[in-house]
From TrEMBL, chains A, B:
Its EC number is 2.3.1.35, 2.3.1.1. PANTHER family: ARGININE BIOSYNTHESIS BIFUNCTIONAL PROTEIN ARGJ (PTHR23100), ARGININE BIOSYNTHESIS BIFUNCTIONAL PROTEIN ARGJ, MITOCHONDRIAL (PTHR23100:SF0). It catalyses: L-glutamate + acetyl-CoA = N-acetyl-L-glutamate + CoA + H(+); N(2)-acetyl-L-ornithine + L-glutamate = N-acetyl-L-glutamate + L-ornithine. It is found in: Cytoplasm. This is Arginine biosynthesis bifunctional protein ArgJ. Heterotetramer of two alpha and two beta chains. Substrate binds at T153, K179, T190, E276, N398. Belongs to the ArgJ family. Keywords: Acyltransferase, Amino-acid biosynthesis, Arginine biosynthesis, Autocatalytic cleavage, Cytoplasm, Multifunctional enzyme, Transferase. Pathway: Amino-acid biosynthesis; L-arginine biosynthesis; L-ornithine and N-acetyl-L-glutamate from L-glutamate and N(2)-acetyl-L-ornithine (cyclic): step 1/1; Amino-acid biosynthesis; L-arginine biosynthesis; N(2)-acetyl-L-ornithine from L-glutamate: step 1/4. Catalyzes two activities which are involved in the cyclic version of arginine biosynthesis: the synthesis of N-acetylglutamate from glutamate and acetyl-CoA as the acetyl donor, and of ornithine by transacetylation between N(2)-acetylornithine and glutamate.
Length: 403, 403
């Protein structure tokens, strides 16, 4: 990566022409916590998006999907603390109203504004708080990091990154933020992600590249196997770099693709690492699957097995649970063929335990990053998934309840 | 049920001609804990069976599936503490050897003996302990309850039931035991269940009825969404009641079917109630689904949603998590149509929150049995699933680890 691009500050406001701003409008119960944010470009952008495949889709997702048909946009307004989901016609009306409020604030047409909501399901948005909050938001190219903070729910830290690289010999930028934490599984799930770039990109190619990047990154993250109703990933390309718009034939297309993949995979890993209650990041690498789809099944299966997630929490190299999760994933599986590695240590060969160095295996389970490799010995399919362990912290986060 | 059949003692040894026996042979680390058991009929039985659909199937499952092709059997030998899974050729050899040891003990042909193992995956069976233990087992018609105990792993109590009812005007019996606790999800999963009856039953009909009963009972239980490698449900019908063998045309077929369904549903509920770390039994009733398959998807989805299981643990009537789990289950789902009830209290109508009696809803969440009803308003499909909450206890059971 060192040759192609380098990391810079300000995440989503790093590319030229983007500003962000936040405020605490009181949707979250704790007073003073940022819960409302705007990200805006100085000029209209080409926009691409990927959304939850959930059958219960929140109102802002429905709005985004409708507005994405034009492929144009200039801003997004986001609140945390309330998902505006399972809120019926009133919820849809409120989502549109939210973009109108932002449009007035920004002096733009509402059709250029997207919106997202994340938080509790089944309650109407407190519109008075939004009406009071949106006009107060102060926008600046310095506030990308504040934007990353304002969209958090149970995240313990913001997730953000920006890269600088060259297109047509000129320095350009790509920035990104995500929020995650709970209700995370493929596909996506209580995940919001916004990406910005000053590179000019053709819309159809941008949509295809975003879809592919999300499939290999956000869609490979699971915290608890629960799928969300509000997943949204949007990319805004404002073209201020002045390059010939990128498409598959552009000589620098691959550079942009690599930057997009680097950012989305980085943010995916950070979401898994910061899963609710997580103390360990696990990376599951499956190879030798019949095909890629099978590798994806097997890799994801481990990230959403509570039994294995508990073993991970306890630092227990219980490879039987790894084999059981992979074997029940629906992938083609030969129970006399698979190998399993924990870190660099091979634990099982041809479906059976081998004499392995127990100290090495325990050391590989003890850190805050654990790598599991499964070789199914059935073909050339490979995939990587990320997840975390299952701890008391996850349960406390999701079960402690006061009326 | 009162009219058709009544409960009696001794579970699997309640039907005439069945004996059981147990011993502590030292497979489980705690000395003196029963871990080896035999169940035998005085005469050969018609046998039917249902097994895990896992791609990693334990050696005893492979043995049972092979021997079931004859549809004849007379005994089963079971050990707990070691699953004999992911053990390759040696494991298969050991499973056969286990039945040979039981055959010698019982004076029967090995082909009439089935076997099961449950416990840790990936270690070879300690055959010396089995060789020493099996001959020591003392068999008696009184030891059905001891058998239920010896097959437990992390279960906190045995699960057992026997019913007496009439076939052709004569009193007959059907008994059953299960073990469950963790790694439980549809289909079946670390679940062993043995059923015995003195009723004569035609083999094909017995297999069909067992399959149907299991689909509506054991296959509707989830503790943690993890599927097991060792699931086995066997029914032994020894025919000592002397009736004309039951088939679909027999006038008393329905009585037997109801008894079989009553026992399997009772044992399924008891497994969910005794899930690892469980403090609450949840029953999920889905109606109004497009069809039964859709109802099954939606009902199971709740029993394996960690987010909802945490809310259940906390007594939180967080219906958004119910809707989110059902909506992501893959069933047909109209987000503006569904109703949700907690206990008798309707919480959501047409996909939105309604003004409900909060005290009632909280009371319905507070007990050790919680009923959730979801009406999808799309058709006539219905299904019931059982599960439990997710607590620190589950994590402790599965993550506390000492080398």
């Amino acid at each position: 990566m060192a040759e192609l691009f380098h990391e810079i500050d300000h995440c989503v406001t790093a590319p030229q022409g983007f500003r962000a701003g936040t405020t605490a409008c009181g949707i979250k119960s704790d007073a003073g916590i940022k819960d409302l944010a705007i990200l805006v470009s100085d000029v209209p952008c080409t926009v691409a998006g990927v959304f939850t495949t959930h059958n219960l889709r929140a109102a802002p997702v429905l709005l985004c999907q409708e507005r994405l048909q034009d492929g144009q946009g200039q801003a997004v307004v986001v609140n945390s603390g309330n998902a505006n989901c399972a809120t019926g016609e009133q919820g849809l009306h409120n989502a549109y109203r939210m973009t109108e409020l932002a449009a007035t604030k920004l002096g733009l047409a509402p059709e250029l504004i997207f919106c997202s909501s994340t938080g509790i399901i089944g309650r109407q948005l407190p519109m008075k708080k939004l009406e009071a909050g949106i006009p107060q938001i102060e926008l600046s190219p310095e506030y990308g990091d504040a934007f990353a903070e304002a969209i958090m729910t149970t995240d313990t830290r913001p997730k953000r990154l920006a890269l600088e690289f060259e297109i047509e010999g000129q320095a350009v930028r790509l920035g990104g933020v995500t929020k995650g934490a709970g209700m995370i599984r493929p596909n996506m799930a209580t995940m919001l992600s916004y990406l910005t770039t000053d590179v000019a990109v053709e819309r159809a190619w941008l949509q295809q590249e975003l879809r592919d990047a999300v499939n290999d990154s956000y869609n490979m993250v699971s915290v608890d196997g629960d799928m969300s109703t509000n997943d949204t990933c949007l990319i805004f390309a404002n073209g201020l770099a002045g390059n010939t718009p990128l498409n598959a034939q552009h000589p620098d297309a691959e550079t942009f693709r690599q930057a997009l993949r680097y950012i989305t995979r980085y943010l995916a890993r950070e979401m898994a690492r910061d899963g609710e209650g997580a103390t360990k990041l696990q990376t599951i690498y499956v190879r030798g699957a019949r095909d890629k789809a099978d590798a994806v099944l097997a890799a994801r299966s481990l990230t959403r097995s509570p039994l294995w997630q508990c073993a991970l929490a306890g630092g227990d190299p219980n490879w039987g649970r790894i084999a059981a999760a992979a074997g029940s994933s629906g992938c083609e599986f030969d129970q006399n063929a698979f190998d399993i590695f924990i870190g660099e240590t091979q634990i099982a060969a041809k479906g059976m335990a081998i004499d392995y160095d127990q100290d090495q295996a325990h050391a590989a389970m003890a850190g805050d990053e654990v790598l599991i490799t499964i070789d199914l010995h059935l073909g050339n399919g490979e995939a990587t998934a990320w997840g975390c362990d299952l701890t008391h912290g996850y349960i406390d986060e999701n079960s402690l309840y006061t009326r």
